[in-house]
Amino acid sequence: MADIVNMPKLGFDMAEGTLIAWVKGEGETIDKGELLAEIETDKATVEVESNFAGTVLKQLVTEGAIVPVSSPIAVIGEAGEEVDVDALMAEAGGDATEEAAATPEPAAPSPAPAAPAPVSTPAPAATPAGNSSLPGGVKASPVARRMAADNSINIASVSGTGPDGRIIKKDVEAYLATPPAERAAAPAPEAEVPAGPALAPLAGMQVGEVLPDQEIPLSRLRGAIGRRMVQSTTSVPHFYVTYEYDLGPLMSMRKQANAMLAGSGEKLSVNDFVLKATALNLRNFPNLNARLDGDRVLHMGRVNLGVAVAVENGLLVVVTHDADRKSLRQISLEVKEKAGRARAGQVHPDDIEGSTFSTSNLGMYGVEDFVAIINPPEAGILALGGAKQVPVVEDGEVTVGWRMKATISVDHRVSDGAEGAEFMQKLKDYLENPVSLML
Amino acid sequence: MAQINTRQAISDALMEEMDRDEKVFILGEEVGVWGGTYAVTKGFYDKYGPKRVRDTPISEAAIIGAAIGAAMVGLRPVAELMTINFAFVAMDHIVNEAPKFHYMFGGQFKVPMVLRTAGGGGRQLGATHSQTPDAIFAHFPGLKVVAPGTPADAKGLLKSAIRSEDPVMFIENATLYQQRGEVPEGEHLEPIGVSKVQRPGDDVTIVTYSKMVGYSMRAADELAKEGISAEIVDLRTLRPLDMGPVIESFKKTNRAVVVEEGWPSYGVGSEVASRIYEEAFDYVDAPVKRVAQKEVPLPYNAALEQHALPQVEDIVRGVKEVL
């Protein structure tokens, strides 16, 4: 008896996945747990293991196809078995969804309502027929498509407000009325390439050469980031508080700690210390480890700290669950491991789900200070600059000190400036007395 | 300009044309001594006599057949069918002879006749006497089908129909005879095959004709209270159908509701919607909505009958569905 393999649901908000590549071809034998295919979701590329042992009798979708969750992708059975795929699918119709639902989903952070809210409007993705049958994969009225084409914009980057999320004329007009800089993932406006004298010849390029415009299709990740950031900047009123910290004691403690870890392969970064301090401090400020949910604010019981990680053509927020209850070394190892998987495109769904507060660190680029956009539905995000040695005045004398700036962005619907400032002030207690991070 | 009702406008048009051209004559049931079932030809018998105002036996086939023959030999008959529901017993003459002779005889004959008739429901006449089968007649090439919605158009279009060299089915709506409106006095001609914007607007295009023009006007008034601006295009002629003003309006509003009194299936709304999709696909922002009669034989019961017929609130609702 042959079995149908369905598109797995690999995250709470996954509605469909792109089948990137088949690992097993038709006619190849496969064991339970062996890799069958690679699938790309909004957030990551994931390897799909077979739930069945046997021979891959039929691949039901081609590589590159976008497949709704729980839709069949392959048939596995005994070699040479005659399979009536249609009958099998009709028979499996009811079971297929149940099976998918039974797939254990990554544990949501407790309490129950803490499951992160879906990113942006889920309506279009939920179209059961599958978006691949729609022209361009999006639901849009003909006039909206024509206007998008006339204005050289990607219709997929417009969010639809019509029935079932259809993109209608009004949406394109609203999109066009939005300054390009504020648009989600809009294609770059045609920039005039300066043809003037170049400062220095660049390798492989003639001085003054004008490059042709290039069209780069949006990856699923870029699209998802775009939707989420538009949602955040258009619906969450942000305020920002910047603070400067003396990292002198922390830097010497880090030196000491890393000396003890020498040879183990472990090494604590400044960021690890800041993460630990932030996690501990969030316990003092439950209103910032929170999210707005309709007419109430949910204070999250767990401190699941997100860390923004730059990946190819985008970013992912990897999560250290219960960071306030983990040691510096645990946090360090966990972040390193998850960030590594994220960069390799092999992130586990659990790595990137359930964060209650996020951090972003651009210090390694020499950035002194910046502001970050809140990752909805969280209530805040901490943007960290680099630690650097600067002249400071101590007891009337100019001397050399370590300083780091950080800026918190807070959802003003949930909190106000004073609380943001108190958070940053209290963070000082941890960062400037780093022994507190060890206790 | 004089405020007169549709009955008077049609009567004036007939009289002016009979005065203008002695070849024009009227035939039908009760058109003479009685003055017409809807009193349109009251006084005609006395003025023009039995030769030009001919009462006929109760045989629709005979009336239309005689009119076709008279038209082929050079007269200008205006035949009256008491109601459009009786057209079915004369169907062969209406769709198989009148529209085809000019073509089949290679242009040797033409059939310049007018077939006046009254249709529409809402008067508790039961399922067989209350129909709006206009679309059926508009199906046949060679037969012009005119259905005015205002007294002025009734006058101007009937005069043009009488002067037309082709057979014209002129469909009046029995509930409109009392409708009053401004009508130019004397010579007033409206061209057949030209649609007309009866009310300008920006947000949605309502395409309609005949009785539903007035209903759509009232719906537009309701919508205006909510800030919705509806443009009303009156087709006036179902064949040849002038889509020009419809398409022009649709390119502006990107949304349309087609309102007709008859049933929606294979109807005027279906035709107009198809033409919009064919001619203005790139301007479509929402599916074209049809507002029409419920798909049942029209009930005799007054409340049920009104429920089955399209009402002003149905038009308002239809517009909101496409916005």
Summarize the SSE layout with pairings.
The complex is a heterodimer of chains A (439) and B (323).
Chain A: E1 3-6, E2 16-22, E3 29-30, E4 35-40, E5 45-49, E6 54-59, E7 66-68, E8 72-77, H1 85-102, H2 142-150, H3 169-177, H4 220-235, E9 238-246, H5 248-261, H6 270-284, E10 290-293, E11 296-299, E12 305-311, E13 314-320, H7 328-343, E14 357-361, E15 380-384, E16 388-394, E17 397-411, H8 417-432
Parallel strand pairs in A: 12-14, 14-15
Antiparallel strand pairs in A: 1-8, 2-4, 2-7, 3-6, 4-5, 6-8, 9-17, 10-11, 12-13, 15-17, 16-17
Chain B: E1 2-5, H1 6-20, E2 24-28, H2 44-52, E3 53-55, H3 60-72, E4 76-81, H4 91-97, H5 101-104, E5 114-119, H6 134-137, E6 144-146, H7 151-163, E7 168-173, E8 180-183, E9 196-199, E10 204-208, H8 211-225, E11 230-234, E12 237-239, H9 244-253, E13 256-259, H10 268-280, E14 289-291, H11 302-308, H12 312-322
Parallel strand pairs in B: 2-3, 2-4, 4-5, 5-7, 6-7, 10-11, 10-13, 13-14
Antiparallel strand pairs in B: 1-8, 6-12, 9-11
Helix pairs in contact in B: 1-7, 3-4, 8-12
What does this structure look like?
The complex is a heterodimer of chains A (439) and B (323). Chain A has helices spanning 85-102, 142-150, 169-177, 220-235, 248-261, 270-284, 328-343, 417-432; strands at 3-6, 16-22, 29-30, 35-40, 45-49, 54-59, 66-68, 72-77, 238-246, 290-293, 296-299, 305-311, 314-320, 357-361, 380-384, 388-394, 397-411. With 439 residues, chain A is an alpha+beta fold. Among the domains of chain A are: 3-102, RNA polymerase II/Efflux pump adaptor protein, barrel-sandwich hybrid domain (OB fold (Dihydrolipoamide Acetyltransferase, E2P)), CATH 2.40.50.100; 236-438, Chloramphenicol acetyltransferase-like domain (Chloramphenicol Acetyltransferase, 2-Layer Sandwich). In chain A, strands 9, 12, 13, 14, 15, 16 and 17 form a seven-stranded mixed sheet that branches. A four-stranded antiparallel sheet of chain A has the order 1-8-6-3. In chain A, a hairpin with a 2-residue loop joins strand 10 (290-293) and strand 11 (296-299). The longest helix of chain A has 18 residues, at 85-102. By secondary structure, chain B is α/β, with parallel strands linked by helices. Chain B folds into two domains: 2-183, Rossmann fold (3-Layer(aba) Sandwich); 196-322, Rossmann fold (3-Layer(aba) Sandwich). Chain B is 37% helix and 19% strand. Chain B is built from twelve helices and 14 strands. In chain B, the strands form three sheets. In chain B, strands 3-2-4-5-7-6-12 form a seven-stranded mixed sheet, with helices on both faces. In chain B, strand 10, helix 8 and strand 11 (230-234) form a beta-alpha-beta unit. In chain B, helix 8 (211-225) packs across helix 12 (312-322). Chains A and B meet through helix 2 of A and loops of B.
